[in-house]
Write a structure and sequence with these properties.
Elements lengths: L1 E3 L5 E3 L1 E6 L1 E3 L5 E10 L4 E3 L7 E2 L1 H4 E4 L9 E2 L4 E3 L2 E3 L6 E2 L4 E6 L8 E7 L31 E6 L16
Length: 172
């Protein structure tokens, strides 16, 4: 919910969400970042957020087993995906209307793999956007509430599949 602090200031309880992306290794992929707030019933996009910003070098960590043995790398790093590379081409994060997209370059034909993305809101001084991501199904399994940075995965060459299925049966 939100609390009015003054004539022009509204405080909201919220979080930052990273939405997984998957698709062809031949096309760029975008990982959506969205600021949300709790409206009393559910989380909804905070379209008033036009000021949250993070740098790729200090606010985004990338990792996968093919790059530096899985050690986290700054968001400015070209990551190995199959025999190719992918890097963020969209620049630093600057939410507008509560959203921004990290666009990753296509690694090229046959280069299948993933890149894990950790958004370091804690390290960027944006603690108010932390959430209890490890407690989604089991509240505070680590004993701490609202202490987790958002994370997502960009997967090249593997498709999520269709959202609808049609069952067709041929006659005997």
């Amino acid at each position: 919910e939100h609390v009015s602090v003054g004539a022009d200031t509204v405080l909201r309880f919220g979080r930052l969400v990273a939405v997984n992306a998957s698709g062809s290794e031949l096309l760029p992929l975008g990982l959506l970042l969205r600021a949300e707030y709790f409206d009393g019933t559910t989380y909804t996009t905070n379209s008033d957020d036009g000021c949250t910003a993070l740098t790729l070098a200090g606010g985004i960590d990338l990792s996968n087993p093919q790059t530096s043995g899985g050690a986290p790398q700054p968001g400015t790093t070209a990551m190995t995906v199959g025999g190719g590379t992918s890097s963020i081409t969209s620049g630093d994060v600057a939410l507008s209307g509560g959203e921004d997209t990290l666009t990753f370059s296509a690694p090229g034909a046959g280069n299948v793999g993933f890149i894990d993305v950790l958004v370091d809101v804690d390290g960027a001084g944006l603690d108010h956007l932390l959430y209890d991501w490890d407690g989604i199904d089991n509240p505070a399994p680590d004993g701490l509430m609202f202490d987790d940075n958002p994370s997502g995965r960009v997967t090249f060459g593997i498709f999520a599949g269709p959202q609808e299925f049609i069952y067709i049966r041929e006659p005997w």
